[in-house]
Amino acid sequence: MADETEDSVRHFLMECHKISIEAQFIVDSLPNAETPAVERVTHQLDAIQEILVGLNDPYLHGEDLDSLILYVTSLLSPLEDFLACPPLPAHAHIPRQHRSGRGRPAYVLDLQRAILLHDLGNPWDDVAKAMGVSRATIYNHLQAAGLSSARQEWSTLSDTELDKLVSEISQAHPFVGSTIIMGHLEAWGIHLPRARVQESLRRVDRLGVLVRWSGIIKRRVYRVRGANALWHNDGNEKLRPWGFWVHGCIDGHSRLIIYLECRSNKRASTVGGLFKRAVAEFGWPSRGRGDFGRENNEMERLLIEHWGENHRAYLRGRSLHNIRIERLWRDVRKDSLETFRQIFMYLTANDLLVMEEPIHAACLFLVFQPRIQASLDRTRDAWNHHKIRTAGHRTPIALYELSRETAIARGYWTGDMGDNLQTASDPLYGYDGEAPNPPAGSELDSEALGPVPTGIQAEREAGICLNDDEELARVQEVMHDFDFAEDDGNWGIDVYCKAVLLLSSRLSASS
């Protein structure tokens, strides 16, 4: 009998734990939580509190029980305050226009914005909810304006035309599958059913389909408050041996790529500059998450300067805790970086590239940096337009814009978009607990915070850069009439070889 009682209490406490997790998330979302959700969890917490007060269990110490009751009370207090003084309804922020006849003033809705959100893949119910009105209201406004509420029509494209486009994408990005290819097409304004893209890919790249199918990895669940609540940033060093560093940043809620840039170094000033440019475009994130690398120092400083010391504005941890962007790197590698890695290995194997030769290193960077960046730009557009199965087949840009619209309608977009301090203080905040560990080689955590190397030689030894900026500038000056971005139809290999020969001859002549 005692075992049954102990088991019953254990199951009750497990259920309490599940409810408290949801309650904490709702509390963190106040005052932007849904009233029905607040009412539901309040009733559940009331019931838990009543049971705990009357619980007389020999397996629970009195202090533990008091602590549980106190925790439930701490959750109930803000929820009850919210229900006692609910915020204004979402539609209260919508401007109205007085009309000549009888009736209430009509809402003034941005119908083009509504259509854009819908065309991005969001259902009308979600668009209406984000804008603070009902679906019927949006339908009525569309009808009055003579606009259609129908889903964006499929693009008219023959199989031959589609196969040509898919073949071009597959050749430029040989390691990606149908989902990312659909993202490339959507980024070009081509809207097609998934089945047609899959069939086309089978026609033009049957072997690649089989290889990619064998490597599918199941995706896991992740949740933060909304867009701009938490940005994950990191650096990818797959091309570091050849002098290229790729810097990335992703919005945790929507998986929207904030920036994806190829640079000649991983200095803190470089990462800080990319972050400031991103803030100018997307607004301030509430928090950032990155590893312990010194390159994150400037981004951390900017966030703390903006939000204050007590906000926990920048969260440092192992790459294990930054899996959101670690997953992105896997797709970026397949969609973009692996192609260039193979090119550089080919050049090295054929004695066309010796990285210890400054001329080779400089020409390689000047020829391939714009090509890598163009590839990353295409990858970013494709990623931001690819459909995520676990998000209702919506795209990152659709999720981001919908969350942004919700925040604008409720008046907090220009404020703090993040979770409260208690939630953000959890060491595992913004962490996919069930996700697979990042691949070996992605850990850069041994590079602890410390003095920043000064001077080009010290930076090279620390793995911060390879090419000296002044040397690159001098090469560009010497080669002022050379087109490093010329399309040679051979991935830039021919242009690189010409650049090495021409630069060698000009430097020899000048010396």
Written account of the structure:
The protein is of the alpha/beta class. The protein has 4 domains: 2-84, no CATH class; 90-144, Arc Repressor Mutant, subunit A; 159-213, no CATH class; 220-511, Nucleotidyltransferase, domain 5, CATH 3.30.420. The chain contains 19 helices and 7 strands. The protein has helices at residues 2-29, 35-53, 62-84, 111-119, 124-131, 135-144, 159-172, 178-187, 194-204, 206-213, 268-282, 297-307, 323-349, 358-384, 396-409, 421-424, 456-461, 469-478, 493-510; strands at 96-97, 106-107, 230-236, 245-251, 257-263, 287-290, 314-316. The strands form 2 sheets. It has a 5-stranded mixed β-sheet with strand order 5-4-3-6-7, sandwiched between helices. Strands 1-2 form a two-stranded antiparallel ribbon. Strand 1 and strand 2 (106-107) form a beta hairpin. Helix 11 (268-282) packs across helix 12 and helix 13 packs antiparallel against helix 14. The longest helix has 28 residues, at 2-29. The protein is globular, with a radius of gyration of 27 Å. The N and C termini lie far apart (95 Å). The model is unreliable at 209-220 and 433-446 (pLDDT under 50).
